[in-house]
Amino acid sequence: MLKIITDEKKIDELLSRGVERIFSNKEALKKKLMSGERIRLYCGFDPSTNSLHIGNAIAINKLSQFQELGHEVVFLIGDFTGMIGDPTDKSATRAKLTRDAVLENAKDYKKQASGYLNFEGENPAQVKYNSEWNDKMTFRDLIEFSSNFTVQQMIQRDMFQKRLKEEKPIHLHEFLYPLTQGFDSVAMDVDLEVGGNDQMFNMLAGRTLQKAVNNKEKFVLTLKLLADDNGRKMGKSEGNAVFLNQSPEDMYGKVMSWEDGVIVRAFELCTKIPVSEIEEISDFLQNENNNPRDKKMQLAFELVKINCGEESAKKAQEHFARIIQNKEVPEEVKEIDLIVGEKLLKVLVEENMAQSSGDAKRKIKQGGVRIGCDVITDVQREIDEVDNEKILKVGKRDFRKIFIK
Q1: pLDDT for the residue 92
Q2: Which tens digits make up the pLDDT trace of 105-158?
Q3: Sign of dihedral through CA atoms 360, 362, 364, 370?
């Protein structure tokens, strides 16, 4: 029989490390965990892209901490909600995706999450898809569930208020997103939902529905967001996200590009380093005579080790020291065949040297793109014959050798 760990010290750390808020309250959840009762908890991940990122890893890491205490963890893939698109923090309506698109995006999510979660063994995390129950919801069900919410509750959300002021449209299906996510809690009959602080509204919708439909208390645990000292998030929109499908070298290099102010919080949220060691790291960084780079390298190594393995982390660290610190060009550089007149922006996106055209423009404007010895500043730059056999370099670690066809 699976043993549930009720060590008070471990539970206290579980409910404080990286935690922003707990609903109804921390004391009630602690009491439930101390009782030895096995709870069911989950976090949902909408497949809007083909990779989870470090922000998702924060919640996955928290799920793993509950798993280590013996609790039942569900890794939920939002193949239904992902088609709608979460409006949270969005200044415009998100483009809707097809079922095929979200399933294609999610095909490696389990593998990407396995650095933190165990999907095998005596207490494996379960993978579920929320289309299993949402596809079966009737219009009658929808009306009944929606009667638990008001238009005022929805319209008061910050991003909707902003759109109203800017006279941007708010579509009805965006109001239904929190209800749809909330129904996940009902369908799985969970005791707890975990997620980022920015997901609080949606998670509380699930708390409301769980009480109304199953007459059951559902706890909500919100997590801190990964941000620097100025509150700037590490994420896709900022162009500094670490994707869990990146190569070890790219993952390591991206972490090394983060602001120093994010180091301590990243150790807290994204790693399994003991709290006592994180406190020592914080003390180290507060001493102006110490170089933050040393702890950032430790952080980069730790994140690559979790997601790619220790051997890969060692190789990534060696690569960083050789290529970045010593400013060498790698011995092996990927060769690409290009045509005169091709847009450089298009090349950067197709070669995964930029996440999007917007990201590519930002990199060029910031002076992060070179062809040979020339820094490229023109976002309309096209490939030219003179580029033949030159090295295309983006940032400090991304190289391609150009061959003109």
Answers
A1: 59
A2: 999 999 999 999 999 999 999 999 999 999 999 999 999 999 998 888 888 888
A3: negative
Amino acid letter, residue 99: R
- Give the whole-angstrom CA distance, residue 111 versus residue 347: 28
Domains of the chain, each with CATH number or no CATH: 8-223 (3.40.50.620), 248-325 (1.10.240.10), 334-404 (3.10.290.10)
Is this model's pTM higher than 0.85 or not?
Answer: no
Amino acid sitting at position 135: D
Q: Which two tokens stand for residue 185?
A: 């809690």
CA distance 116 to 368: 33
Long-range contacts of 165-168 (CB under 8 A, 24+ apart): 166/91, 168/91, 168/92
DSSP letter assigned to residue 111 = H
As a whole number of angstroms, the distance between CA 371 and CA 392 comes to 5
Angle at 235 between CA 234 and CA 240, to 5 degrees: 70
CA 1 to chain centre: 34
Cβ neighbours for 276, distance < 8 A, ≥ 6 positions apart: none
Residue type, 177: Y
What are the pLDDT digits (tens) for 181-195? 999 999 999 999 999
The answer on pLDDT for 238 being more than 70 is: no
User: Going by C-beta distance under 8 Å and a sequence separation of 6 or more, which residues neighbour residue 256?
Assistant: 293, 296, 297, 300, 320, 324
